[in-house]
Amino acid sequence: MTTTPEKADKKDKESGLLRKGSSSKKPLKEKVVQIYESFFKGEDPSLGNPNFWDEFFLMKARNFQLEGVLKNDPRATCGIKGQHQLTLPQMHFNLERRLPDQGGQCPTGQYTMCALIRGVYGKSLGDYGFDIINILVGFDAAEVQMQRLIESVHSILTGDNPAGLKTLSLKLLLILVTATDNVSQNTILEYIMINSVFESVVQILANPMSRQVHGHDALLLLTILVNYRKYESVNPYIVKLSILDDELALNGLGWVISSALTEFNRKYKEKKEEPQKQMTPFSLLCMKRFTSTGISSPFSQRHTETSSGPSSPTTTRAVEGTREGPLPSTPPPDSSQTTNHMVTFLQYCSIVMQDIKDEQRLCSFKLCLVILTCIAEDQYANSFLHDANMNFVVHLYRMPMRHRKIAVPNTSSRPLACAWLDLTVEFIVTHMMKDFPMELYMRCLGIVHRLLCYQKKCRVRLQYTWKDLWTALINLVKFMIAQEAHLASRHNIFYLAIKVVNLFNLFITYGDTFLPSPTSYDELYYEVIRMHTVFDNLYSMALRHATNHGEHKDSATRLTNALVNIRAIVNHFTPKIDSWSAANHLSSLTEDQVLEVVRSNYDTLTLKLQESLDQYERYAEKPKESAFFTQLVRSIISDFRKSISVATLQQETVLQEFSHIH
């Protein structure tokens, strides 16, 4: 028997449905909720009423009530299929024909779709595959219905429509793509792969006004889409992103990412960032995806740093920028100047690396290093980083340490590669601890190696204080030797030591082609000779492990071989320095006196040519990093689902906005 809305309304009143003036605080059920309850009973209120759907989408609903009844009504699972196959297509139809001439029904239909999709996915239905698709639209009609939906959303996002309606359309897409914890198990995304929203996102990013309002959501949507089954098949969004040549869109993309980082940096500087509050890693994941597809131009452009961040709020996760302790970190001075997105990112890196004991913070800084690694492998990016005519002031935060003075902030304008090296040196000297972050050290040294390989290849003589790097590396070796018993049982420290020694070998073998002056090359030898005891102890440690058949025997043997030239330098110059000292009746020599001996005895030094010092294995996400990035995407999806609520979407505002254009 068919129940009309009037009869259903009367029935609800007779069954005690509370009125507004009732003394009870129980909220009044709205008409939309009543109609859905009728659907779940197996009834179809639309029968016999040709205007039903027009009236239905004019109703204003409290969507949390609608979500609740979809999620909690025990009859919803039984009656859900078929009825939603009827309802969702009707929403598509109303979305198409009510845009743009009869506004009220368009946002109301979208609100209802948001609540419907969240409610259906909120049911304990097990596999989120074809069964969900069948429930929502019917499997046979799914391709047509999803095409119509995407086309309608595209029209809204690219047309001259109210900002609130565009926001709601993006939220609808985000609700679809974040419906499951594992994005690759969300089968409904197959239809979004076929019916692309890439062009809609690009248009939003290319428009300066649009990206200020919608940039955050657009970029989040794109980030999730490029991670859909990327290890299993060709993802069309990755392909389109890799060939994107729209400079306006690329710059807009960089602006959105940089704005999020700028806001985090600003909060840290002003000490308004609460210790427990953390920044979402999604902006970093966006940046990583773009750099790994070869897009580096958004991060190689000058701009004036006046942005206060995107107007769309970011969800909070990942790294907090504070560190417990009595000493404050060194803040950079205020400045309003020509800067670059990379400057903002480097400053962000200097904040997040200060406290990596928490797992989330550790993951965030790991992602920062992955991004820097990908950029350091890019020829175009390297040419920009090392360009002597492209100089920037980069104020890096420094971790407070009791054994060093609070540093005066750097105010000199230099190529960005100098700031990269400063960042790696800062990490090396501040993270020598018992809970040793071995992986981060390996990545950090890998970044230095890539920069040096570019400098050697292109004969770039970077004006940098290289002694800072050499001292940091030698101190790292001293730490590994001192903590051998503790570290060797947990890590292959010989592998890390090889990385350190080979950096020195690269300087020794090719330094005359990229160090800024002959004096710099002389200073390298001086540091090696001055700190020869450290290298002697390292060789003894490696030799001991190479001969005792331990688990790190092979790495220890390789380390002894890598030390051959350093030992040759020490063995060659030490007796000559001692002889010169004796001849001049001096018990100790100044640096200049040692350098004089070094310069006089280069000709008789014999070094072994070591191969592949300027070669490295290019970064590959699969298979080593697959689990890390899969979990990272899960956390981003989880954060969005926790932060979004259809109930918080301001329906009244959107309706008022929409009505103004008619």
From TrEMBL:
Superkingdom of this protein's organism: Eukaryota
Signal in keyword set: no
Keyword Membrane applies: yes
Biased segments, Low complexity type: 306-316
Residue ranges, compositional bias (Basic and acidic residues): 1-17
Alphabetic keyword roster: Membrane, Transmembrane, Transmembrane helix
Pfam families attached to this UniProt entry: ARMH3_C
Main localisation: membrane
Residues covered by the Armadillo-like helical domain: 409-644
Subcellular location, record wording: Membrane
GO-annotated cellular components: membrane
Region entry Disordered, spans: 1-27, 295-339
Full protein name: Armadillo-like helical domain-containing protein
Organism in which the protein naturally occurs: Branchiostoma floridae (Florida lancelet)
